[in-house]
Specification:
Rossmann fold; three-stranded antiparallel sheet; globular; magnesium; pyrimidine biosynthesis; Orotate_PRibTrfase_bac; orotate phosphoribosyltransferase activity
């Protein structure tokens, strides 16, 4: 499966000047919702990630919104339950809808894209506070610069080497370009 080609074909991989949820600027944006809207690709990506998991998993957890579809597909392939976290009014990750983690449960955290790892780390912290054991993290796209979560690299389908900059360092801003924010999350 040529994941890069699928991302380009579905317009999930964009080039330009973007403001990321982290507040950083980038020349590349990955909007996995554009590829995951196709159930066949979502299912295939879920199977591909599940095939890379080499530990026992009791449950898959994803942060809403980006991780919902791919997390569900990975859980389906692993034949384990799937739940998700959401942000409360204070923008803190929480379990709602009577979702919870049992003490000692082996958890795989699945995201669509990992850039800074902030959301994934928040989900890991919540799981550990509930007594769960995070056995790994996974994503479709790893666009981080060597972000480790619990001292482990995430499982991923594609590494995208996208440049990120602070507003002050951004060469596109210095040329007068204004970033666009195609994602759904407010700037943090």
């Amino acid at each position: 499966m040529d994941i890069m080609n699928i991302l380009l074909e579905t317009k999930a991989l964009l080039k330009g000047h973007f403001l990321l949820s982290s507040g950083l600027h980038s020349d590349t944006y990955v909007q996995c919702a554009q590829v995951l809207k196709y159930p066949n690709y979502a299912e295939e990506f879920g199977k591909e990630i599940a095939n890379k998991v080499n530990v026992d998993v009791d449950i898959v957890v994803s942060p809403a919104m980006g991780g919902l579809i791919i997390g569900h597909e990975v859980a389906s392939s692993l034949k384990v339950p799937f739940i998700f976290t959401e942000r409360n009014d204070e923008s803190t990750m929480v379990f709602r809808r009577n979702f919870n983690i049992e003490k000692g449960q082996k958890v795989l955290v699945v995201e669509d894209v990992i850039t800074t790892g902030k959301s994934t780390k928040e989900v890991v912290k919540l799981i550990e506070e509930k007594g769960g054991i995070v056995v790994g993290t996974a994503c479709i796209i790893n666009r981080s610069n060597e972000v480790k979560i619990n001292k482990k690299d995430p499982i991923y389908l594609l590494k995208v080497d996208a440049k990120t900059y602070t507003k002050e360092e951004c060469p596109m801003c210095k040329k007068g370009s204004t970033p666009i924010k195609p994602g759904s999350r407010k700037k943090i």
